[in-house]
Design brief:
The protein has no helices and 11 strands. It is mostly beta strands and 115 residues long. Strand 9 and strand 10 (102-105) form a beta hairpin. It is globular and about 45 Å long.
């Protein structure tokens, strides 16, 4: 079994920063894709930033220039540094990963940005 555990969400004011972390653990053989997604109330879950299977990074247009995804050397922990946060960044942020060919999600971490 594989688990993804997120941490680092919270309540901040517009213009401030937050850093999210996600740790993958369990019976991991391969992690092909790992990244961050978010879902605001009444909307679908959308990509924020992701490490692709080829090792490249994709960002949503809304994240470019403000958010940075990174990972540790073992590639089992990823981070999302979020700067210059805006009220429209308010959402539940999920860590998602394809591990051993199966998609897993974390429990979600609430990020609330007040204006």
């Amino acid at each position: 079994q594989v688990q993804l555990v997120e941490s680092g969400g919270g309540l901040v004011r517009a213009g401030e920063s937050l850093r999210l972390s996600c740790v993958a653990s369990g019976s991991i053989v391969t992690i092909n894709v790992m990244g961050w997604y978010r879902q605001a109330p009444g909307t679908r879950r959308d990509l924020v930033a992701v490490f692709t299977s080829g090792g490249t990074i994709n960002y949503a247009d809304s994240a470019k220039g403000r958010f940075t995804i990174s990972r540790d050397n073992a590639k089992t922990t990823i981070y999302l540094q979020m700067n210059s946060l805006k009220s429209e960044d308010t959402a539940v942020y999920y860590c998602g990963a394809v591990v051993n060919g199966q998609l897993y999600w974390g429990q979600g971490s609430q990020v609330t940005v007040t204006s």
